Amino acid sequence: MTKKCSSILLAMLIVSLFTRPVIHAADDFGPEEWHQYRMNSDKNAVFDNGRPPLENQTYQTADQIRATPVIAGNKLFVGNHNTGDLFAFNVLTGEKLWQNQAPNWIHSEMIYNDGQVYVGFGNRFFQGNGIRGTGENGVIALDAETGEKLWTFTTEGEVMPTPAYYEDALYIATGDKHLYKLDPETGELLHKAEIGSTVSMSSPNITDETLYMGGSGPLPYTFYAYDVKKDVFKWQMEFPDVFAGLDDVPPAVANNTVVTTAVTGDIDSPEHWLYALNAETGEILWEESLGTGAFVRNNKSGAPIIYDDKVLVGSPITQTFYAYDLESGEKLWEFENEVIKAPPAAQDGIVYFSNKEGMVYALDTETGEVIGKKELNGILAPSGPVIINDTLFIGSQDSNVYAVPLTDFTKDESAQKTNIASENDEQANTMLYIAGGIAIILLVVFIIYLRKRVS
User: Fold this and answer.
1) Of 326, 395, 386, nearest in space to 358 by CA
2) Which one, 128, 219, 289, 378, has the greatest CB density within 10 A?
3) Mind listing the pLDDT tens digit for each residue in 107-159?
4) Phi and psi at residue 418, in whole multiples of 5°?
5) Residue 307 lies in domain
6) Is residue 11 one of the residues assigned to a domain?
7) What's the pLDDT tens digit per position in 71-80?
């Protein structure tokens, strides 16, 4: 090979290295962990790592979905209400990865930690001894890759609330009036505390080493704070006027404030209330009536989230969606609609809430103005939507999980985010092309110099 050819080949190799476009490492679509109901203590289940949103997609299961879909890494996990079927999907493609089955209803989220999934099972029916949950009850651990059952821990009462994972321990609240602490690797019982109340679907919220949950009978309805380090109750607050709802609502916690809801009065004249409690003492900071209306079956008290120092909550009793100031309890706005049971999700000044009629609305969090809406199929799950990378995920009682890009509501804002990312990549590529051009010029000069020396 001549020196001239060698020089040209070297030049081509270097130029190709410098002019190659930018290729980003493929990050997982979802978070690395999902440790409790709706992931975050404020219950605003939102995550963004810069990945572009998905297109509209459907994940088909076997039966009704009433739990929140959990997205961890590139997998979506969800269970079925009546049949107890458990599913994992590739969240990017919609491909079903595996399917297994629990022995009873699934209302619990399939929370995720370090390659394992944990899910509670049980139903709402009462045994003759007053324990809630007939048939088999408990929690299952599964391998997230294969769906293989790793262990099962059985309880006397239902585990409809989502378990909570915290510092190498798994906590489950039950229909047998107990709080269980388990070893997440083996399912071994580490501690058992008597609550004194039945817990329906008030999934434990663990924040700053404290677990918060609401309970029902025996009367009075009571709200609890439990120290997970000392395994003792820190405080409990009784609600003597409440007859429903407190045990159904997973509380939201932020800024040292716990927010929950409950129903007072009676079946003929129910009144829906919103409560804010001091997270350290249980003192009621403020309470506001959302109003009266018709009593509803199941999920009688809407679940709140906290976003941007606001409480955002829907009421199935008044069929209205509300925004309240977290600190003062002042009502900021309201939006009349249909029966609303699910907690919403909020991002970029927009709150997305679903109603019983299969609609998802996008409202301005400052004004309550409608920005967009979309109709989906079936009665949407009472656990509400989550937002991962500008994609809204929600389950339905038609057996499907729906993925909807937020561009369906706010095309300009989502497109702007995608365009900014694209522009950044183009700028990086342009800089590399410029550098490559300079490299070519220098190589040509060097080759000319070598040829002159040879000649």
Assistant:
1) 395
2) 378
3) 999 999 999 999 999 999 999 999 999 999 999 999 999 999 999 999 999 99
4) -65, -40
5) 46-409
6) no
7) 999 999 999 9
